[in-house]
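Batch job 17 of 40 flagged for manual review because the log was empty.
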Amino acid sequence: MDRAIYTAMGAANAALNRQAVTANNLANASTTGFRAQLMAYRAVPVNGPSVPTRTLVAESTPWNDTTMGAVHQTDRDLDVALPQDGWLAVQLPDGSEAYTRDGNIQVNSEGGLQVHGLPLLGDGGPLSVPPQSQVTIAPDGTLTALGAGEGPTALAQVGKVKMVKAEATSLLMGDDGLFHLSDSVSAGNAAPLPMDPNLRLMPGMLESSNVSPVKAMVDMIATARSFDMHMKIISTVDDNEKSANQLLTLS
C-alpha cells in the first residue's frame, strides 16, 4: 500500500471517530447535567530501521468539559443542582458506585429514589421513602418525608443524599453515560469516594447540559470537510499510481 494512502486513511479514520464524539455531544445537548466529551489527536511517528519519515494520528477522548451548564429553576421538590466538582452517587447492578450530575431524582413504585433508573445512594446505602409521601431535600442533602394524609408534625427525616467531590480529571465517562473512577485514581482499589459534608445542593433547580449546539454543529461541518479532504488525497494518490503503472507498462 502506498505510504500517502495509508497516512491519509489514518487521518480519515480519526476524523470519523471525532465525528462520532461530536454527534454524541449534540444528541445530549438537552440531557440534564451532561458534560461534553473532548476529542484529542496525538501524533505517532512511524519508527523503523531508517529515519522516520511519516507521522500517523491517534485519537482519544481523555477528558470531559468541566464547564458548568446553565442552572434553571424547576420548583420541583426532587430536582437538585450541584456545585462545581459535586456529584451524586448511584449504585450499579454489580453493587459498585458511579457518579452523575443529573439531579432529576425520581421515586419508583416501592418508594426507592432513583437517577437514570439506578438507586440513589445516601449515607447508609440506597435511599427510600414511604410510598405516596411528600419528599423534600434540604441544601445539605437531608431528606424529609411527610406521609399521605399526615399532619405537619409527622414530618420525619428519612436519610441524607450522598454527595461526593471529585475533579472531572479523576473520573471517566462510561458507555452508560455515568462517571467512574479512573484507573490512575482507583489504582486497583474499588473503594468508593467518601461523602463530602461541606457540599450544598440547590433544591428545585437543574443544571442543563454544557454542550453548545452551535459549536457542535460547526465542529461537525469542519470534521466532515476534513474527512472529505483526506478521501480526496486517497483518490488523487490512487489516480497517480494508476498513471505511473500505465507509463511503466508502455515502457
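Reviewer: the log was empty due to a logging misconfiguration, but the result itself is present. The chain has three helices and 19 strands. Unflagging and moving on to job 18.
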